[in-house]
Write a structure and sequence with these properties.
The protein has 681 residues and is of the alpha/beta class. The chain contains 20 helices and 16 strands. It has 3 domains: 17-145, Chitobiase/beta-hexosaminidase domain 2-like (Chitobiase, domain 2, 2-Layer Sandwich), CATH 3.30.379; 151-486, Alpha-Beta Barrel (TIM Barrel); 510-556 and 593-669, Alpha-d-glucuronidase, C-terminal Domain (Alpha-Beta Complex), CATH 3.90.1330.10. Strand 1 (29-32), helix 2 (37-54) and strand 2 form a beta-alpha-beta unit. The chain binds 4-O-methyl-beta-D-glucopyranuronic acid. Belongs to the glycosyl hydrolase 67 family.
Length: 681
């Protein structure tokens, strides 16, 4: 039986004899050159991978066999007989990219994995193994690929006591108590898994941060982790608590314009870099949800970011400054606040600062329009923050394939430079030239056996990494790869399960927040429905603030005669969103307060559509459960049973959502439930 620990790196033996033989014939021997930490990681992986998949013991040598050899080396060590055939590929190759190429010479066959740099070789190895794991032909390969985004990182919201904020997969994998001398095998496997999808950075600590992480006692533990991750091309970053100079430095202020405070951060950076020369930099949540920041001293985001950026700049470090801010003093529409606070500073942040923006302007909802800051700061580095952990999407209980959500956001058209300028173009720096590009995902990883709690939540970690590597990949392709590497290559499994994954995102929207509803989850924990909650101290924490249901209708009016949030988008989009008729129905109640009897495009009323969409969500979960039942022959028993039980809970809770929301909203709509909606019992 299989507990899921190996993730998508299972490398299980290929059952199909013919296929197995084709692979074995092509990969008769391995020639590998290089003996550095990164190249050794590549070497170990190719041996582990091929030995498992092809059930064959490989010995590695430098010599190139006369035919059917797999040859792995950086450019400078590739046998000169191949130079000519690789020349063009090398001229195209970008940093950390790789070439995988089949070359035939005088009837002799070679497969080459190469790169300008060592990390590119490691990425090439993982990608080559993926081809075999997913049963692709390796006869005539010609792949030249490289990451589109510079910095691809996980954000762990992990606390020093090993609790994980919004974590649903057990405690933090960082065992601070036993570090630095005890190196858990999990750290190495974590690095392998991340490198396999191209992730090259990790923020170890929660954005709601604890200054203690910056003390020497913790720094030696961080250094130990950095040493484990380095061969895999993964840099370590930390969250910087803005008030650290007071809390651990003994100063009386953390004012960013204060010389002593600046000096403290400069010294701190120097100390960190003396132990971790490739330290990535800081991630900062300032003046948001009670966190300290420059505004405590009458300064602004630029002042704060500049101070930290100056401290890490001499060492090549960066500062990721979060834009997730909203204040209790300006509550007409929380969705507008980040844009209002940040966009006027465009062009004022130093080059080694990047503004980290959540995908939507409220908070990681099942569906949000993309954040209007994307495309609105042409002279500032701006990066994407997605949430992989399912804070608002059923924790690690509900099956939801998030790459579909990520893809929807990335492919959204900003119209900032006319039609066809997508969020992905903003993020990858192709729209406005940027000094640094980056994408972060809030990790769903914990110390559960299978890392992520729900066996299918692994797909969200995987898919995030793939999209950070290339934001133009399709969710469907990602689903296909993941299913094949993780479970089975049988068509009878892959086809229905790809559909199931792809549809699962819309399903959760249907049974939680259809038609643009948002933030109606129960408070604090955000699990299950709570549209009725209205007694929290800050208005914008209450679900009633977001749906605004009354006898006339439902929805948040963000049009020009409402909060006017639509005006934060480009001219074209503003017009589309502003008009009830042109606003996409899936975002209707995000932008408009709509009468209960308003007719949607299908001719039926808003109320009836709401009811039937909730019902549809429930029916779809029932369908997921039925599909999964048919997958029993293709998966191991333990995971079959686990997923089966989880889907049963998901079905029960989809019904809970439907019943709770429909009964609650009915008090305002004052209309009967339509035919086709099963009545709450
Ligand atoms: O989504 C909200 C979460 C908080 C989180 C905050 C943030 C880390 O409910 O738990 O704090 O966002 O992103 O800063």
């Amino acid at each position: 039986s299989d507990n899921g620990y190996d993730l998508w790196l299972k490398y299980q033996k290929i059952e199909n004899k013919a296929l197995l033989n084709t692979y074995k014939n092509t990969l008769n021997s391995i020639s590998f050159t290089g003996n550095t930490a990164t190249l050794n990681a590549a070497k170990e992986e190719i041996v582990r991978g091929l030995s498992g998949l092809l059930n064959h013991e490989y010995t590695i040598s430098k010599a190139v066999a006369s035919t059917n050899a797999l040859i792995i080396a950086t450019k400078e060590h590739i046998d000169s007989q191949f130079t000519e055939q690789l020349k063009n590929d090398f001229t195209q190759l970008k940093k950390n990219g790789f070439i995988i190429k089949s070359i035939t010479k005088k009837n002799r066959k070679y497969t080459i994995i190469t790169s300008n740099d060592e990390l590119g070789v490691l990425y090439g190895v993982f990608n080559f193994l993926r081809l075999i794991q997913t049963h692709k032909s390796i006869n005539d390969l010609h792949i030249v690929d490289a990451p589109t985004i510079d910095i691809r990182l996980l954000n762990h919201w992990d606390n020093l006591d090993r609790t994980v904020e919004r974590g649903y997969a057990g405690e933090s994998i960082w065992n601070w108590h036993k570090l630095p001398d005890f190196i858990d095998q999990r750290y190495i496997d974590y690095a392998r898994a991340n490198a396999s999808i191209g992730i090259n950075g990790t923020v170890l600590t929660n954005v709601n941060s604890n200054a203690l992480i910056l003390t020497p006692q913790y720094m030696e533990k961080v250094t130990a982790l950095a040493n484990v991750f380095r061969p895999y091309g993964i840099k370590v970053y930390l969250t910087a608590r803005f008030s650290a100079p007071i809390e651990i430095g003994g100063l009386s202020t953390a004012d960013p314009l204060h010389k002593e405070v600046q000096q403290w951060w400069n010294d701190k950076a120097k100390e960190i870099y003396s132990q971790i020369p490739d330290f990535g930099g800081f991630l900062v949540k300032a003046n948001s949800e009670g966190q300290p920041g420059p505004q405590n001293y009458g300064r602004n985001h630029v002042d704060g970011a500049k101070m930290l950026a100056t401290a890490v700049a001499p060492y090549g470090g960066i500062v990721m400054w979060r834009a997730f801010v909203y204040s209790e003093h300006d509550t007409d529409d929380r969705a507008k606040q980040a844009y209002t606070e940040f966009v006027p500073f465009d062009g004022q942040f130093p080059d080694n600062v990047i503004i980290q923006v959540k995908n939507g302007a409220i908070d990681f909802q099942p569906r949000e329009p993309f954040h209007p800051m994307f495309g609105a700061m042409p002279k500032t580095n701006v990066m994407m923050e997605f949430q992989i952990t399912q804070e608002y999407l059923g924790f690690s209980t509900h099956l939801v394939f998030l790459p579909k959500l990520y893809q929807e956001v990335l492919s959204s058209d900003t119209y900032v430079k006319g039609k066809g300028t997508t969020v992905a173009n903003v993020i990858d720096g192709s729209l406005h030239t940027k000094k640094i590009t980056a994408m972060a995902g809030v990790a769903n990883i914990g110390s559960d056996f299978n890392w992520t709690g729900h066996p299918f939540a692994q797909a969200n970690w995987y898919g995030f990494g793939r999209l950070a590597w290339n934001p133009h990949l399709s969710a469907k392709e990602i689903a296909d790869e993941w299913l094949r590497s993780t479970f089975s290559n049988k068509d009878e499994f892959v086809e229905p399960m790809t559909d199931l994954l792809i549809n699962s995102r819309e399903t959760v929207v249907n049974y939680m927040t259809p038609l643009g509803l948002h933030h109606i989850m129960d408070t604090n924990h955000h699990y299950g429905p709570g549209p009725w909650v209205s007694n929290l101290s800050r208005p914008e924490w209450n679900p009633v603030y977001y749906h605004k249901a009354d006898s006339l209708g439902i929805g948040f009016n963000r049009s020009t005669d409402g909060s006017n949030a639509v005006s934060q988008y480009s001219k074209e989009l503003k017009t589309i969103y502003n008009n009830l008729e042109s606003c996409p129905e899936e975002l209707l109640l995000w932008f408009h307060h709509v009468p209960w009897n308003y007719k949607l495009k299908n001719g039926d009323t808003l109320w009836n559509n709401m009811a039937l969409t909730y019902q549809k969500g429930v029916n779809e979960v029932a369908q997921m459960e039925a599909t999964w039942k048919m997958m029993e022959p293709y998966v191991d028993n333990q995971r079959f049973q686990e997923v089966n039980m989880l889907l049963k809970i998901q079905l029960k809770e989809a019904n809970w959502w439907k019943n709770a929301c429909m009964l609650y909203f009915q008090q305002y709509a004052n209309l009967p439930f339509p035919n086709g909606m099963e009545k709450p019992t």
